[in-house]
Amino acid sequence: MQKKLGVAVAAALTLGFVGGALFYNGGRYAAEIGHMLASNDSVDAVKVRQVGEVEDEHADADHGEAGDDHGESAGGHAEEGGLVLSKAQIAAAGIELVDVQARAMSTYISLPGEVNFDEERTAHVVPPSAGVVERVLVGLGQKVAAGDGLATIVSQQVSELRSEMAAAARRVELARTTFERERQLWKDGISAEQDYLQARQTLQEAEIALANARQKGKTISPQGEAGDGSRYNLRAPFSGVVVEKHLVPGEVVSEASNAFTVADLSRVWVTFSVSPRDLEQVKVGQSVRVSAPELGREATGKVAYISRLLGEQTRTATGRIDLDNADGIWRPGLFVSVALATESHEAAAVVPASSIQDVEDKTSVFVRTAEGFEVRPVTLGTRSDGFVEVREGLKSGERVAATGSFILKSELGKGSAEHAH
């Protein structure tokens, strides 16, 4: 008992010196220590309290550092509606900047159209004479040059015609010999002038018959080839592609048979329908834009023809565009859209369509600032050729993000989510 009392007294003296020192130095624990002594708190309890205070101080320090880290992580986002990006970050993200400029903008009407063959360069090849198909020389879709053989046909009529030509040629030869002899005899005074005149008439008639026979032969062979007996070749009238073939070996054909269709696809026609209310806005020679959404292709041309009559079924007028098709992209039968410019005006502020983004249900653009980008709502006007008129929100000379603007939209969304948490 006396031993425990001695320990308590020693502890009290020690704490008294500590408390005095703390009070002397302005320590904040003097009152608490006195209260602990009055309550018979042990030295161990005081030690635990001091450790707890130290841990609280470290916790406060850690909390402050965490707060600083949070502020730094959000440093990529400026005030609400903006982004902080350096030039290097903009270049790394592949964001292209464009200047807001004035530009002529056109208003278009869109009309349905279809690609067709150029009827002036499309031939339905038919046999000039009835016969039997011996050989077919080309296949469907094959390219041919002018004069290339398409098929070989055996025809009795051709055999008779060639015999007629040969006989006419022999008669001309005989008549010319007789004429030369009679003319010499008449000059020598041996024969009468009547015999000479008769020989000349006979020669002229033979030459006329030969010319007629040759003319018939050209309907079968425009190149004037002699041919082989009863055979003749059906030939391409011009360079093009075999788009239809209706012959097989052994088939009997006549002058009415549609054997082949050859089309020059280097140019095509685009036909489109014009309603009566739009007729006054469509003129021959007017520039148009032809687009095929399925192909992702677009071409420009001019209106070549507008019909004077309305179709009985559609009650619309038909227009035609001559379109270059050297690459073969525009295939007959393809449905297209024909856009015709009806009016044009000068817009003060125009940006590429890729600059426009919807941010929080507002049509906006990202305007370049000294720190990065500012999100700015805009009011749009006419769209034309991949550009958009901005009627309100921008002025000429400002710079906006074009290609890659969706990256900025995504980054802005991430920043909004971080602030929400």
The figure for the number of domains is: 4
Radius of gyration: 50 Å
CATH topology of the largest domain: OB fold (Dihydrolipoamide Acetyltransferase, E2P)
Strand percent estimate: 25-35%
Distance between the termini: 62 Å
- Largest β-sheet summary: 6 strands, antiparallel, barrel
Average pLDDT figure: 75
H/E element sequence: HHHEHEEEEEEHHEEEEEEEEEEEEEEEH
Outline the low-pLDDT stretches: 1-75
User: What overall geometry do the principal axes of the alpha carbons give?
Assistant: elongated
Find the count of extended strands (DSSP E, 2+ residues). 22
Given the helix and strand composition, which structural class is it? alpha+beta
User: Reading side by side through the largest sheet, how are the strands ordered?
Assistant: 3-12-15-14-13-16
The helical percent reads 25-40%
Q: What is the H level of CATH, i.e. the homologous superfamily of the largest domain?
A: RNA polymerase II/Efflux pump adaptor protein, barrel-sandwich hybrid domain
CATH class of the largest domain: Mainly Beta
The number of helical segments is: 7
User: From the 3D coordinates, which CATH architecture of the largest domain would you assign?
Assistant: Beta Barrel
